[in-house]
Specification:
The complex is a heterodimer.
Chain A lengths: L3 E10 L4 E10 L2 E6 L8 E4 L4 E4 L1 E6 L12 H10 L2 E6 L10 H14 L3 E6 L13 H7 L3 E2 L9 H12 L4 E4 L4 H4 L4 E2 L2 H6 L3 E2 L1 H18 L2 E4 L5 H12 L5 E4 L1 H5 L21 H12 L5 E2 L8 H4 L16 H10 L6 H8 L1 H7 L14 E11 L18 E11 L2 E5 L2
Parallel strand pairs in A: 1-4, 1-5, 6-7, 7-8, 8-9, 10-13, 11-12, 13-14, 14-15
Antiparallel strand pairs in A: 1-2, 2-3, 5-16, 16-17, 17-18
Helix pairs in contact in A: 2-3, 4-7, 7-8
Chain B lengths: L15 H15 L16 E6 L4 H13 L3 E6 L11 H9 L5 E6 L4 H6 L5 E7 L5 H15 L6 E5 L6 H12 L3 E5 L15 E3 L2 H5 L4 E4 L5 H4 L6 H8 L3 H4 L7 E3 L12 H4 L6 H20 L5
The chains are: A alpha/beta, B alpha/beta.
The complex binds zinc ion.
């Protein structure tokens, strides 16, 4: 049934160390074989000469806003944005309205994704009921319903003992706790990285230590009780050092960085543009370089967008009043290809790993490699395609991008999920 | 030559030539306020809107007088009188104001960056009359004008700003402008009120006031907001005053002809002693007088810039 041949692409599959021209044969939504010069000619053959075929990209940090804030994004529009941006799967955070803290909401998200979504959606359940940081949410029933991880993302888990119990309890199900690291007592009303830029703009500062001290706390807790800890959107060089230190002690911690923290610094907020206001905030050039170095060196498990759609009117206000967050699904891949791969700072296989193999492993989901038996999820890249970012053309309902007007070379041109082409702009 | 900037949003990045042009123009307008008929027809037919979302009678009156002395039509919109209600954004207000076809909008607002936001939504020239803890450029210009009256220059002068640097828009605007005009600037105050990274603005940081004011030509005490104590930035105002208050004894350490400034309104006995505020070194009333002249210059240069 539905056999498909993807012919002549440069196959980049970090999981198997493959980087060469191959044909890939697909049947029944799975990969059948990967070889040079496959002679079989199924009904559908797609010629990918000159293009890169990578394992389907997985964005493990997305805010879909449905249920509750459909004016910002819906599951359908978020999935369409993901497909257009080269993602075959996304993990959706629990801070919807109502919060995804029970079986019913998890099931609703999955049902809606099956009905209207083009990409795979992995629901992430809340750690605490109502994201209130007091009592554990019913993690077991959410996992049964299909949740792949838990996180209170959008909010930190202030209470250390709750975090400790979450790590302990999640072990039962072998799922990771995804941690948004922020000490609210240190952040206060901070809206921008504490440093010279915030000082000169008169904006309340958000100290790097507010992130790093929480990372340190959670690394120690994970070491003590076991459990899979994943640190979300790391933004500081010191945070990476702490993770390195913890790994050296044998703690299997994973982490992610975002495209915006990899390519922008706090200098970007100079004109008070609210599309540069994110949580955690843009940091220093030194921090940015540390993140890029860690990505190039394979220390970063995943690049995740933290896609956070907001309505235009909500961002068209004074800097302190604006909500945190930027969209990322439709710009992540070209921004990274143009600014990090083309410049030679990050090898293409390292980036592909952080967009596919790494997140699949961190989340414990299928995918992330091009090998027989694996799901036929692919992202096809045209490294020479030139285009300018125009939010007006986004599939996402939101346009709060910090990359508007950037001219970028290297774009995703085709997205395949379970052997089905869901986006094609070759 | 590039066209002069359309707005005055801050003193950061304000070129020295432009700052000096404003100061020279202000000198010529200073004399207008001394005439029996304090009015010139320079901006006849122009409309200046004073949009004061954060109340400040002193600054508003200063701008209003400046506009009237130039014969402009001045409209005052305050937070309550304007259509600024809950739920209406600054962008909405800007669109409403466009209907009045103002030539200049003077904005005072509690949010940093509000003047920048407004500038993106209007055809009028925007003058920042204080945006939260960010900038207050006309205050810095009137401070510079006052200093120039006493020393004829800023270049090479030692200027010290004492107090809550973190929350002071005056401090930021003063630092940029004074540095641009060649002064050496030191900031002094409790570490909790001096933002991390302030050195990047080209200032020296001192935590002991005796050391900071030694040989200074200008010392400016900043207003201590009483709520900073509740915010936990300082343990008590009494302690602040003891450690950082400008006393007669402390200002003795200044250069012999050194001057003492304050952007007002003063908390006598907290950041500045009464004997200093009323003493021979104080030039505080002169600052207020220069305010009108500087604002006339700014309105004149911005409203006249399009040659209209
Ligand atoms: Zn987060």
């Amino acid at each position: 049934m539905d056999r498909l041949l993807l012919r002549g692409a440069r196959v980049v599959d970090p999981a198997s160390g493959l980087d060469g021209v191959r044909d890939v044969l697909v049947a029944g939504g799975r990969i059948v074989s990967v070889a040079a010069g496959i002679t079989e000619r199924p009904p559908v053959t797609i010629d990918l000469d000159g293009l890169v075929l990578a394992p389907g990209f997985i964005d493990m940090h997305v805010h879909l806003r449905e249920p509750g804030q459909e004016h910002k994004e819906t599951i359908a529009s978020g999935c369409a944005a993901a497909a257009a941006g080269g993602f075959t799967a996304i993990a959706s955070m629990a801070n919807t309205e109502p919060v995804n803290d029970c079986r019913a909401v998890t099931e609703m998200i999955l049902a809606e994704a099956r009905r209207h979504g083009s990409v795979r959606v992995y629901p992430v359940g809340a750690v605490s009921k109502g994201l209130e940081g007091r009592e554990l949410a019913p993690i077991g029933e959410m996992v049964e319903a299909g949740a792949v991880a838990v996180s209170d993302d959008g909010r930190p888990i202030e209470d250390a003992s709750l975090m400790r119990r979450a790590l302990q309890y999640a072990r039962l199900f072998g799922i990771p706790v995804l941690a948004h690291e922020e000490d609210p007592s240190l952040v206060g009303d901070g809206v921008a990285h504490e440093g010279p830029v915030a000082a000169r703009l008169g904006l309340p500062g958000w100290p790097a230590a507010a992130e790093d001290s929480m990372i340190a706390r959670d690394l120690l807790l994970a070491e003590d009780v076991g459990g899979r800890l994943h640190i979300q959107h790391v933004t500081t060089g010191r945070g990476l050092e702490l993770i390195r230190w913890s790994r050296a002690r044998g703690v299997p911690v994973t982490c992610e960085v975002t495209p915006h923290h990899l390519t922008l610094t706090d200098e970007a907020i100079e004109g008070f543009g609210t599309n540069y206001k994110m949580n955690p905030p843009l940091r220093t050039e030194e921090d940015r370089r540390a993140l890029v170095g860690a990505l190039a060196g394979g220390e970063v498990d995943a690049v995740a967008t933290d896609h956070a759609p907001h309505h235009r009117d909500e961002k068209a206000v004074e800097f302190r009043q604006a909500p945190f967050g930027v969209v990322g699904l439709e710009t992540a891949v070209p921004v990274l290809l143009d600014r990090l791969v083309r410049t030679g700072e990050v090898p293409l296989p390292a980036l592909v790993a952080a967009l596919s193999t790494g997140p699949a492993r961190a989340l414990g989901v299928a995918g992330g490699r091009i090998a027989p038996g694996e799901p036929a999820d692919f992202t096809v890249l045209d490294l020479e395609r030139e285009r300018t970012v125009e939010a007006a053309g986004f599939r996402s309902r939101a346009s709060n991008t910090p990359f508007e007007g950037w001219s970028l070379t290297g774009w995703p041109v085709m997205t395949v999920v379970a052997g089905r082409v869901i986006h094609d702009s070759r | 030559m590039s066209a002069p900037p359309r707005h005055l949003l801050g003193t950061r990045g304000l070129p020295a030539e432009r700052a000096l042009e404003i100061l020279e123009t202000a000198e010529s307008f200073r004399e207008v306020s001394l005439r029996p008929i304090k009015k010139v027809p320079a901006l006849r037919g122009k409309t200046v809107v004073n949009l004061f979302v954060e109340p400040s009678t002193r600054t508003r009156v200063s701008f209003e007088l400046a506009a009237k002395r130039l014969s402009a039509d001045a409209v005052n919109l305050s937070g309550s009188a304007s259509s600024l209600r809950k739920g209406e954004t600054l962008a909405d207000t800007a669109r409403t104001l466009e209907a009045m076809h103002p030539d200049v909008i003077v904005i005072r607002h509690p949010e940093p960056g509000a003047a920048h936001l407004l500038a993106r939504h209007t055809r009028a020239a925007v003058v920042n009359a204080g945006d939260g803890t960010h900038e207050h450029p006309t205050q810095a210009l009137l401070d510079a004008m006052t200093i120039r009256h006493h020393f004829g220059r800023l270049a090479g002068l030692k200027v010290v700003l004492v107090g809550d640097i973190a929350h002071s828009r005056v401090a930021r605007s003063d630092i940029h402008l004074f540095r641009t005009l060649g002064a050496e600037v030191t900031v002094c105050g409790p570490p909790t009120l001096i933002p991390l990274g302030i050195e990047d603005l080209g200032v020296r940081v001192a935590y002991r006031i005796e050391e900071a004011v030694e040989g200074a030509d200008v010392v400016m005490a900043l207003r201590m907001q009483l709520e900073r104590q509740r915010g936990g930035f300082v343990p008590s105002l009494a302690e602040y005053s003891r450690l950082f208050g400008l006393t007669a004894e402390r200002i003795e350490r200044m250069a012999p002809d050194g001057i003492v400034m304050h952007p007002g309104p003063m908390n006598r006995g907290i950041e500045i002693g009464g004997e200093v505020a009323d003493g021979p070194r104080a030039v505080i009333t002169e600052q207020v007088e220069n305010g009108v002249a500087v604002r006339m210059a700014v309105l004149y240069l911005l409203a006249g810039a399009d040659g209209g």
